[in-house]
Every structure is written in C-alpha cells, then in structure tokens.
Amino acid sequence: MKTQVAIIGGGPSGLLLSQLLHTRGIDSIVLERQTKDYVLSRIRAGVLEQGLLTLLEEAGCADRMHAEGFTHDGTLFSNGEDSYRIDFKAHTGTPVMVYGQTEITRDLYAAREAAGGQIVFSVEDVRIHDATSDAPSVSYHSNGTEHRIHCDFVAGCDGFHGVSRQAIPLDVRTEYEKVYPFGWLGILSETPPVHHELIYANSDRGFALCSMRNAQLSRYYIQCSLSDKPEDWTDDAFWQELKRRIPSDYADKLVTGPSIEKSIAPLRSFVTEPMQYGRLFLCGDAAHIVPPTGAKGLNTAASDVHYLYTALRAFYERNNSDALEAYSQTALRRIWKAERFSWWFSSLMHRYPDQSAFDLKMQRAEIDFLRSNTAAQKAMAENYVGLPY
Ligand code: APR
Ligand code: PHB
C-alpha cells in the first residue's frame, strides 16, 4: 500500500489531521489499534479553545458542534463558601465552547467515512521503519496478515501508550514528567448541571469540578486518593463529598441521580523532546500529557495538528520543508506554555498530601491575588481560552 502520510492512531489527533489533509488533497491512511466503538466509548474533557473550533471548521466538521455545543463566556471559581467569576470574553474577547471530545471524535469519523477515508481498525504490532530516510514505511498486522504502508511521512498520533514515541531512540529523546499525588474521581449523570457555567472549587477537603455535556447531562469530579477505586465510592458518597466541596448555595440546588459512568484518572504532566525524528512527527498525547485542570489535553493536541498540517501543506503545495524541519521547536514552544498553565492551575486548586502550613498560606495568597487582581485574571483568561497558535 502507498499513501502520502501514514497516521498511527485514530483518536482526535489522527482523525483531525487526516481530515484536514484530505481538504487539501493530501492522502493519508489511519491505523487504529482498537475498534471504532471502543474509541467512541472513552469519556474525556469537553472545553474547546477557539483554535480547535477554527480547525474543525476548516475540516468541515463543525456543524453539529455549533448546533449542540454551548458557548461559555466565563467560569466560576470557589474557595470554601467564597466564589467569584472570571469573565473570559471580557478579558480576551473570546469565549470557550463546551462540547464533548467524544462527540468531536464521532463527527470526525463521520467526515472521514463520508469522504471515503481509509481507517484500518484493530491493527496489531504497528512498527515504523526507516524514519530517517526519504522513504519511511509502517508495517502492521490485521486479521493475522502482515501489511506495509509506504509513505512520505509518518504522523504518530497514538496517544501516551502508543509505539510512535518509542520509535525515537533513547539517546535522541528526553522525557520530562511530574506525577501528582492524587487522582480525579469523575461521574457522568443524567441530571441538569448545577450551574450554567463550570465551577472550579478549592476546599479544605480538596478540589471539585462541576462541568457538563448538555442541559440534561452533567460531569462532576472530586479530587481523590490514588489508592481509591471507583467501586469504593457509591453514588451517594460521591454526591455527599461533592456537596461538601462547593459553596452551599450550589450544594443546596445540586440535582443528584444515578451515575452512568464512574472512573478515576491519575494526574500527570509529561513532555517528550523532540517531537520529530526524521520523517516521523508526534502529535497530541503521544508527545505530551497535561493534568486535566483547565482541559488542555485535546486543545494541545489540536495545536500540534495545526502546526503539522500547515508544515505538510507547505511541503506539498510549495515544496518548502522549513516548517517541517522546525515542527518540534514550533509545537513545543506552545506546549510548554500549556504545560505551565495546567501545572499552575492544578497547584492552585488541589490539596497536596505533603502541603505544609506555609504552602497552604502561599496557595491561599495566590487565590486571593487572582480573585482581586484584574491583570492576574486577564492572564488566567488568556491561558484558559487558549494562547495563539
Ligand atoms: N497502533 C495504532 N493505534 C494505536 C496504537 C498503536 N500501537 N497505540 C494507541 N493507539 C490508538 C489508541 O487506541 C487511540 O485511539 O491511538 C489513539 C490515540 O488517541 P488518544 O489517546 O485520544 O490521543 P490523541 O488523539 O492525541 O488525543 C488527545 O485525547 O486522550 C485525550 O487527553 C487526551 O484530550 C487529549 C486528546
Ligand atoms: C470536563 O467537562 O470533563 C472537564 C471540564 C473542564 C476541565 C476538565 C474536565 O478542566
């Protein structure tokens, strides 16, 4: 088989890249380890930056998002009983869009299928060959048979546990990592959201987040211990704990109900450098992870896709490889800023097991500063809605 860009991974990064390339007549094949149903069963954050909206529009996949998504101009922050709002739109001129990542992935699959795009599911033993030559290839097994795709470029969009990052030799690759000493217990429930905007809550008992998918579907999280298991938490225990962590005005009007999904996510900051090796380019979770505070996971993946798509266009349309050569440097410059924001926002909002009395005072002072300082709120807003590409 032959294609211009072999894309490993059919998550949002791989699908978006494939669809964008298609709009410019650049051919790709997507290899996905799981089935489509499995990919569409994963629940992820749902706050989208303007940059991602623009990419989805360019990819022709934004209609349902515009019809069903919710534009949020700001967000509530609380600290115990005290709450305040940061108006993102007033500070930056830009709102964010609340629309589930699973729905974006569904829309991208629909678009690839409508365009006759090639996606091979349930592939095994994916290997990248000759990445540093002009003629790389990707081999894989499907239904017990080995196949090989000859291509110009390989896009490694296969998430944190994929093979693409591992294909970069250890003496070339440096990994930076911070593992946080707590997790997020999340539930999805068919109840109306407690508030029309998100609430990020810091409390003596730890962090909580009130989010949503639509008018009848809420997503809530509480900071939990890393040793907790979802089955340790009954729905009732979850609701009680959430109510203790948000201001009582909201706790009193919280509508509870059975959870339809309950899971625990660990929190991690991770970046690998460089994000390219010869003709292999990493995008999204394959190259970096952020803790979910601030919902930058999909948004950072989107900025990588933007830089790689732009660079591939320059190559195919103008025979110019400058942007491809600079890809890692260009993408990482923005990634590190998003890493900093997610790390800072996580530090601000959580209780750490080893936090000293001094650390707590510093955290409290930082929250007070953000609450009262317009410049600090503007900086927060600029990061939350997304730094420019
Ligand atoms: N071969 C083929 N596909 C693979 C392989 C492999 N060896 N390993 C992993 N995959 C697939 C996974 O099954 C998954 O569907 O690659 C896809 C990667 O998707 P994501 O993990 O969703 O990563 P990405 O597309 O970069 O999306 C980033 O999604 O994971 C969230 O928090 C993340 O919000 C961020 C965004
Ligand atoms: C979510 O809705 O799942 C969500 C929203 C905001 C975050 C993290 C997760 O910061």
Backbone CA Rg = 21 Å
What is the C-level CATH assignment of the largest domain?
Answer: Alpha Beta
What ions, cofactors and ligands are bound? adenosine-5-diphosphoribose, P-hydroxybenzoic acid
Individual helix count:
13
The coarse silhouette is globular
Plain-language structure description:
The chain has an 8-stranded mixed beta sheet. By secondary structure, the protein is α+β, with helices and mostly antiparallel strands. It has 13 helices and 20 strands. The protein folds into 2 domains: 221 residues, FAD/NAD(P)-binding domain, CATH 3.50.50; 123 residues, D-Amino Acid Oxidase, subunit A, domain 2 (D-Amino Acid Oxidase, Chain A, domain 2, 2-Layer Sandwich), CATH 3.30.9.10. The mean pLDDT is 97. Helix 12 packs across helix 13. The protein binds adenosine-5-diphosphoribose (APR) and P-hydroxybenzoic acid (PHB). The site of P-hydroxybenzoic acid (PHB) has 11 residues, from strand 15.
Topology:
Blueprint lengths: L4 E4 L3 H12 L4 E4 L4 H4 L7 E2 L1 H9 L4 H6 L1 E3 L1 E6 L2 E6 H5 L3 E3 L2 H14 L3 E3 L3 E6 L7 E6 L2 E6 L2 E4 L17 E16 L9 E4 L5 E7 L2 E8 L10 H11 L2 H6 L5 E15 L2 E2 L2 E3 L5 E2 L7 H22 L3 H4 L1 H23 L7 H16 L1 H12 L4
Parallel strand pairs: 1-2, 1-12, 2-8, 5-14, 12-19
Antiparallel strand pairs: 3-7, 4-7, 5-6, 9-10, 10-11, 13-16, 13-17, 14-15, 15-16, 17-20, 18-19
Helix pairs in contact: 1-6, 1-9, 9-11, 12-13
